[in-house]
Specification:
105 residues; alpha+beta; Ubiquitin-like (UB roll); five-stranded mixed sheet; 3 helices; 18% helix
Length: 105
């Protein structure tokens, strides 16, 4: 059961522990992380589940699709470690990860 640290948009940190299944977005929503809107429910159409990873965890993530990359290009808060949380499997690779919720555009 992966345990991650979530940095909220106000800088507050919360620990999230969930079963290794589904997406990171689903785990954050199930943990009542309200800063993550995820308006489209994981359909890769809104980018409101935008997060920033620590550079160490970045190396463990699956490759980004062109569609995800295009959506993130529309964000003024994109960084070199930006991802859509709906596209990240919530599995044991994320154990110990630090994930920051990106500010909304």
């Amino acid at each position: 059961m992966p345990n991650i640290t979530v940095v909220m948009t106000n800088g507050q940190r919360r620990q999230v522990q969930a079963a290794a299944r589904g997406s990171l977005m689903q785990a954050l929503r199930d943990a009542a992380i309200d800063d993550l809107l995820a308006v489209c429910g994981g359909q890769r159409s809104c980018a409101t589940c935008h997060v920033h990873f620590d550079s160490v965890e970045w190396e463990l993530l699956p490759e980004m699709s062109d569609e995800e990359n295009d959506l993130l290009d529309g964000s003024s808060h994109r960084t070199s470690t930006s991802r859509l949380s709906c596209q990240i499997p919530f599995d044991d690779r994320l154990a110990g990860a630090v994930v920051a919720i990106a500010p909304l555009d």
